[in-house]
Amino acid sequence: MQARKFEQILTDLKALTRRQRERLLALLRPAVELDKAVGLIESARARELACAHCQSRQLYRHGRAHGLQRYRCKNCGRTCNALTGTALARLRHKGRWLDYLGGMLDSRSIRRSAADHGVAGATSFRWRHRFLDVSKHDRPQCLAGIAEADEMYMLESHKGSRQLDRAPRKRGGKATKRGISNEQMCILVARDRTGQTLDWIPGKGALTHAQLHQHLLPRLERDVLLVSDAHAAYRSFARRAGITHEAVNLQAGVRVRGAIHVQNVNAYHSRLRGWLLPFRGVASRYLSNYLGWRWALDGGRIATPEDLLRAALGAGRSVRFHT
Ligand SMILES: [Zn+2]
Question: What pLDDT score was predicted for residue 191?
C-alpha cells in the first residue's frame, strides 16, 4: 500500500466507534499472530538454515509460501523453508500455534485445547504430538555428584487404539494382577542434586539391572554416588557396573540418612502423577511425549509459549533448558 494512502487510513481510524475498533482488532489479530509465529520460527531456525535435501547453505530467497520465506538451493535447485525437515513442517494455521502452546503450558487436554482454539480434535492431537516430538529428546547429557534413581509404574493404556488384545478397561481401571506385572509400564527417573533430571520408559513389568545398565549407566559420571531404595536391581547393577551405591530402606521406614535419600526423585514422581491426572489416562505409546512435556514444565524450564515453540523447533537444545 502506498504510504500516503496508509496515512489517510490512519487519520480515518480516529473516527471509529468502539464497536468498529473491536471489529478492526479482531480482523487484524490472526495476521498479527501469524507474523509473531513466523518471526519466531525464522529467527529460531536462522542459524541452522540449510537445504533440507542436500544440506547446502547456499540458498537464495525465492518468494514466500504459507507465511514463511521460501528459499531455493543453489546446489540442488529444490526449495525449502525454515520448517522443512522439522516435525512442524506442513502443519497449518501457524497463527494459532502460540495460543495453542499457551494452552499446553496450562496442561490442557487435547479435547479442551481443540475447543479453545477452534481446531478439530484430530488437529489438536497432531499438533500436541508434533510439538512434543523434538522437545522430548532435550535432556541433559550426564548426572554428577549424588544421583537419585527410582522407578514408578503406570497401568499400561491402549487409549485411542482400535486394536485391543484384551477387553477394554474402564478409564482409570485397576490391574487384574496384584503387584508389578506386565500390565504396568515402568518409568525410571534419575536426578542429581543440581536438579538435572533424566527419565526413561524401560518397558513393561519390574525394573531389571540389565535395563539400568542400558539406560542409566551411559548417563552417569564415573565417580557418581548412586542412591536408590532397597530394590535389588539397583544393587546388582551398581556392583556389576562398578558404581558407588547407597540404598535407603524405605520399607523399614528409613527415608533419610544424611544426604542419602531419594526424596528429590520421589517428589518428581508425585508431581508427574498429579499432573497426569487431568488427562484421564495417557496412551502408553505416547507416554514418552508426556514425560518430555512434564520434564519441560518441571522447574520452569519452559515458561512461555515462545520458549515451547523454540524447544519444538530444536533451537538451543541442551543449552537453554539446563537448570
Ligand atoms: Zn540443496
Answer: 95
